[in-house]
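To: structure subgroup
Subject: Chain for Friday's discussion

All,

I'm putting the inputs and outputs inline so they're searchable in the archive.
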Amino acid sequence: MPLALLALAIGAFGIGTTEFVIMGLLPQVAADYQVSIPTAGFLVSGYAIGVVLGAPLMTALGTRISRKRMLMLLMGLFIAGNLLSALAPAFGMMLTGRVVASLAHGAFFGIGAIVAADLVAPEKKAGAIAMMFTGLTVANVVGVPAGTFIGQAAGWRVTFFAVAALGVLGLLGVAKLVPEQPKAEGARLSQELAAFRNVQVLLAMAMTVLGFGGVFAAVTYITPMMTEAAGFAESSVTWLLVLFGVGMVVGNLIGGRFADRRLMPMLFVSLSALALTLAAFTFTADNKIAAAVTVTLIGAFGFATVPPLQKRVLDQAAAAPTLASAMNIGAFNLGNAIAAWLGGMVIAAGFGITAPNWVGALLAVAALGLAVLSAALERGQSRRTEHTADAVLPTPAPEQAAVPVGRH
């Protein structure tokens, strides 16, 4: 494994930690600033919106410099945002720090995925992308629980100082280990935008929104679901989230391994399994052991879709992949926001605390349908290309009958 992948994974670990650790620290932050929990919740939604908006913005700004330099600038922005959050004297300043940190998120993963893929042989690209995303998945197993514990024991500001220190480590790793990769020849913003005229790029992003949205339709409401339906104590939810994170790590690595061999079949299998598991969660949610197993599987099948979807975007936008890759990261967060809203709607409508699982299952089925459509369109395009190639081949001239020499 190239050491540069380790540097990218460290940066991903820090970003993943700061994105999710705030959920465990909301009560402390709300009490410190004397705001309500729903108001403090803007620190979560504000970050998500910043990711969606920051992905195209920061990528567009970085089209004129090398990818390594852009990664270093993004880590610098991430450090600044977390330091601002740690030092913020007022809630508005804290929210500003969260948004500043989030602006680096989409572009870092989008550009980092391209750099990771370029570090290895073509048949290992999805595995390299998965290795970088391992930092994000491990953050849910180690970084978020540790950050929550530190925040509860020493104060939430210490957690954000620690995350900023992770950013410094990631910055140094990128500077030292990531090789120089000049920007693509002639890579202009107009060329990057042209990738979105490719229907396959748009389909892959739609699959990202729907498929990963299916995961968060359920996981967003895991605390009330597990305490009210399964009977877990609130303190046990942290360990359920650790199990979810373990599933994410395993699924991410498996998805990367098999996507390098058979990308679309891997998507078919992972999305089908995700839809079935989410549907089953409605029935397993009232049993502690079954619920814990199901939560782990949701993490595994959900993140098994990440490397193939990211590689699919890179493959289809090969001429100018930077903006498309970053936008696909924004698509993950857009899916999270939409799915959380839909899950809340079905609960508010009186369908029960486990109803978001059905929302998630339907979203995963919709993503599977788009995957089937994408594959069908690709096969049709391949057949048309072959037919055109056959049509332009010159027709062999018929052999002329031999004329015997000396006879007339």
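Points worth raising on Friday:
The chain has 16 helices and no strands.
Confidence is low (pLDDT under 50) at residues 400-408.

D.
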